[in-house]
Each structure stands twice: as structure tokens, then as C-alpha cells.
Amino acid sequence: MIKKVLFQGQDNHQDNNKDHHQEWLCAPKPEDSASLFSHSYPKDSQTDEQTRKDIQKRYTRGRHAYYSGLKAEQTACILLHNAGWDILLQRARTPKGEIDIVARQTITHQITQQKEIILCFIEVKKRRSLTEATLSLSPQQCARLFGAAECLLQHFTEWSYNTLRFDLIGFDQTGKTLWLQDIIRCMEPL
């Protein structure tokens, strides 16, 4: 996304440094992150020392947040697995957005002996506090989750379910966990 904004209108002329600029202006891939700060930044009239330092700080924060988020997602998968859920997909990317975890659980009701299959789309959030994690799910993000879930359901037609829901698993800095079930339905106005 950054590449499209930065180089809009420059498609028709040659710029030898274009690829070089894209390399350091776009977020690093995990395999490139080790060599990120050994990279020599382009020196031109628009890039000064403070700008380079700001970019380095942003990359450091971004890289930390990325790996922290991955760890939270792995911890959420362990939590779900221990609770009897089958993990169907992790980090499922669709044209409409990404869903962190897709899980399914089959429950047999003790009285009726009927089986209920729950298909759950799970958003994982890690913030400084559990309150921040809970409040970080915006209405725009809910719309993206709905769109991504719709794409996945159209693609994976073999998924059967009786109940479909969206959950949020939140983590704080200390590792405390909060699992909010059916979070999007609870957010809807009455």
C-alpha cells in the first residue's frame, strides 16, 4: 500500500533509485529484518539524519509489534487447542482483509445428544492493557472481518457449521488473557 502512494504518477519515467527507495520505505519482511539497520539509506536533499533516525525508530516499533502479535496469535492457538478447538486457518488473507485465526469446535449437548458445530473467526489483539485490547476492535475493522469471513466461507464450501461467531482474544503486556465470545454481535446497537 505504501508503494502505491509514494510512487503515484511516477510510473512513466525511469528512476534508478526507485527500487532502492521502496526497499527502505516499506515495512521489512521478517527475513530482512536482521539486516535492516546495516542498510545504507539514500542520501539526498530530502533525507536528513533526523528523518533516518525517525524511520529506524518506526521500524523498531513496527518489528517489535509484528513479532509480539505473532507470539500472541500462537498463544491464542494454544489456548484454543487446549479448550478443544480445531485450528482451521491462521493469518488467513483474503481480498477483503485478514482473519487471525479460524477455528471449529464440535459440542455434544448432554441432554439431547445433538452435535453442534461452532465455526469461529477470531481476532487477536495485544495491547498494554486488556481494556485497550478490547476497545481496539473498531467498527471499520468489524466490517473488514465480516468481508474476509464471507470470502473464506465462499472459498471453503466444505466447512459445515450450526453456529457462526466472531471472538476476540486479548492479551496485555503481562500476559493476562481475555476471551470475549461473539464480540461483534455484542457490539451491535440494540
Describe this structure in words.
This protein is α+β, with helices and mostly antiparallel strands and 190 residues long. The chain has a domain of 123 residues: Trna Endonuclease, Chain: A, domain 1. Helices cover 39% and strands 24% of the residues. It has six helices and five strands; from the N terminus they run H-H-H-E-E-E-H-H-E-E-H. The N terminus is likely disordered.
Q: How much helix is in the residues?
A: 25-40%
Instruction: Assess the beta-strand content as a share of residues.
Output: 15-25%
Calculate Rg over CA atoms: 21 Å
CATH class of the domain at 65-187: Alpha Beta
- Terminal Cα separation, in Å? 36 Å
Stated plainly, the CATH topology of the domain at 65-187 is called: Trna Endonuclease, Chain: A, domain 1
What is the overall silhouette? elongated
**Physical arrangement of strands within the biggest beta sheet:** 1-2-3-4-5
Structural class designation: alpha+beta
Which consecutive residue ranges, at least 5 long each, have pLDDT under 50?
1-39
In short:
By secondary structure, the protein is α+β, with helices and mostly antiparallel strands. The protein has helices spanning 2-6, 18-25, 49-82, 130-135, 139-155, 183-187, and strands at residues 86-94, 97-108, 115-126, 163-171, 177-180.
